[in-house]
């Protein structure tokens, strides 16, 4: 089945979740080329079966090369422990899941497969290259779109679960689109997240050689003081062929402070150390 046909099938069963970015009214039908809202605003589907809810140019440094490196590392299993923890926090029944800043789609794909594809998943990102890659999975129960975090193209009370994996947050929008008894699950780095990569890029004694999550954590807990907090930490042996991908997959390698001569032999393993925040509404 072509990507655009998969997308139409998903939209026909889930159109009630989306809202028009122009008038904020409901979409009422799936046309040959896209979707149409109550006030007759049209939004065309791309050939890859995605929707673009942003109609202005977006400058993103997350290019295809970086996103493919990220996909290689995630497929290696870098996030498996994190996504397993997320899966354990989601009710066993079928859920509607929103992935905030889904990138190239692998984490959502892994989560849906982990839960035996009983759920309906929507992933969005500001990066068009990321969304184009995400459609490669051809998931029948997932849909990907380009959208703005601060103006989510979804109706109120549309999602049972919101997953925010290392992405920025817009809590007022999260509160709007999540259903009663829904779960917001946000993952933020702890101090030793990718610590070996930080030491390789910046040395061991600079400000950027570790990560301080207190500002992000404090803001989250201010908004959701009754949240459950759990920590996930593990270390993976890193094959030589993936070392370059690890360097390229994060924004850490950007900037003037990065060491010019990288000794990849030092990158024999990598540590995942994160804080998982779970809020029930």
UniProtKB/TrEMBL annotation:
Residue stretches making up the Methyltransferase domain: 97-182
UniProt name for this protein: 23S rRNA methyltransferase A
Residue sites binding Zn(2+) per the record: 20, 23, 37, 41
GO molecular function: metal ion binding; methyltransferase activity
Source superkingdom: Bacteria
Keyword vocabulary terms for this entry: Metal-binding, Methyltransferase, S-adenosyl-L-methionine, Transferase, Zinc
UniProt: S-adenosyl-L-methionine binding residues: 79, 104-105, 193
InterPro entries linked to this entry: 23S_rRNA_MeTrnsfrase_RlmA, Methyltransf_25, rRNA_m1G-MeTrfase_A_prd, SAM-dependent_MTases_sf
Any one Gene Ontology BP term: methylation
Pfam family, one: Methyltransf_25
């Amino acid at each position: 089945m072509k990507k655009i046909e998969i997308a139409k099938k998903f939209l026909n069963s889930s159109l009630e979740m989306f809202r028009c970015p122009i008038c904020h009214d409901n979409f009422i039908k799936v046309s040959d080329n896209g979707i149409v809202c109550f006030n007759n605003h049209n939004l065309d589907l791309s050939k890859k079966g995605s929707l673009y809810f942003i109609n202005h140019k977006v400058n993103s440094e997350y290019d295809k090369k970086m996103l493919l490196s990220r996909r290689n590392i995630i497929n290696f299993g870098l996030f498996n422990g994190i996504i397993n923890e997320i899966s354990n926090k989601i009710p066993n029944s079928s859920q509607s899941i929103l992935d905030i800043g889904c990138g190239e789609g692998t984490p959502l794909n892994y989560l849906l497969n982990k839960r035996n594809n009983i759920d309906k998943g929507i992933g969005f990102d500001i990066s068009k290259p990321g969304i184009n890659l995400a459609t490669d999975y051809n998931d029948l129960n997932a849909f990907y779109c380009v959208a703005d975090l601060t103006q989510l193209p979804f109706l109120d009370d549309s999602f049972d679960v919101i997953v925010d994996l290392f992405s920025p947050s817009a809590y007022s929008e999260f509160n709007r689109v999540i259903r009663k008894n829904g779960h917001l699950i946000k993952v933020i780095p702890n101090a030793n997240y990718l610590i070996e990569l930080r030491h390789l890029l910046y040395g061991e004694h600079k400000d950027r050689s570790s990560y301080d999550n207190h500002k992000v954590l404090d803001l989250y807990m201010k908004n959701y003081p009754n949240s459950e907090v759990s920590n996930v930490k593990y270390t993976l042996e890193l094959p030589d062929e993936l070392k370059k991908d690890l360097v390229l997959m994060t924004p850490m390698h950007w900037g003037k402070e990065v060491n010019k001569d990288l000794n990849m032999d030092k990158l024999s393993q990598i540590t995942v150390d994160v804080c998982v925040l779970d809020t029930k509404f």
